[in-house]
Amino acid sequence: MRIRTAAFLLAAAHLVSALPVRNVSSYDNMPHGMPYPSDKQLKMIEEYAHGTLPNGPPPPGISEPGITNLKLVAFNELFEVAFFNELITNITEKVPGYRFSSEDDLDYVLRSLRTILAQEELHALDANNALDNVGIEPIEPCHYKFPVDNFDAAILLASTFTDVVLGTLQDVVERFAMNGDFGLSREVSSIVGQEGEQQGWFRIMQGKVPSELPFLTTSDLNFAFTAIQSFVVPGTCPNIDSIPLKTFQPLDIITTPTARTANISFAFAHSHHTNDTRLWMTYINQQNLPIVEPLQVVENEGDDIVAKALFPYDTHEMNGLTIAAVTPTKGPFPNAWSVANETLAGPGLIIVN
């Protein structure tokens, strides 16, 4: 058995062993001159996005934690730009799995995705512009790989990583506030609203109700940083080392949870466990205190451990996004940051509803 690099997203999106049709985006084929568009290209991006980059004065300074926030936002947004650009290309080139029977459906989907792509481009430019304004090198795109080969799988995946983004931006806003970067909080909060509208569309396209939860699941910058790297071709990010965040070992969700309480199976690297070590599965769901369940080792062979833990759906109404992490302690954990600080493997992404 081998832990798959993108297993947590494959499990969350119910994708199995899908191979990408167009699986690498590089700096050279980022759309519209990204990440450094010309004035003409920027004007075109803004027209597609139905709006402009903010034109107010930038903050005179940004704290070190605030700079880390902006680097993570730029890192994420460039990944999203590559993803949506590849999706649009697959549709326009009528790649098998991305064809539509109705021209009206095709037109509507392409108009929607082109707007989403342009809005993500502006998000990336806004974060990098803020870094450049205080003399920090902007984040550069990587080469990416996307484990989908059809439109429905792509929308499932987009919905999953947008859930993570919505949780991570909560962390970004709180860190801005805690470190005095008030001038950036309102702008990022406006992005939260935009991403929420986008997520509602993804959910409708899956036949789900548009709003997922009353209080969206929170996350931590380090979980997002690790998750994005599942789509990165190793060694292709020019300045990823400038982002001072943790990269965790992968956590593979073997059993796809459903809306009921049951034991589910996980796999992770065996280096975190010896026969006398207790490990725990810690779940982050909605705005509630993290939930901790003991891990029971089922198999410990080769490089990996297979273990099971209870997914206590009924007790906690664990709908929407749940972030799972292997921890060496059962806490108590007061928030997502404290879980990330103790995480050995993760994040595992679970979506119910």
From TrEMBL:
Q: Report the leader peptide range.
A: 1-18
Pfam families from the UniProt entry: Ferritin_2
Which keywords has UniProt assigned to this entry? Signal
Q: What is this protein called?
A: Sexual development protein
Q: What is the species of this protein?
A: Penicillium bovifimosum
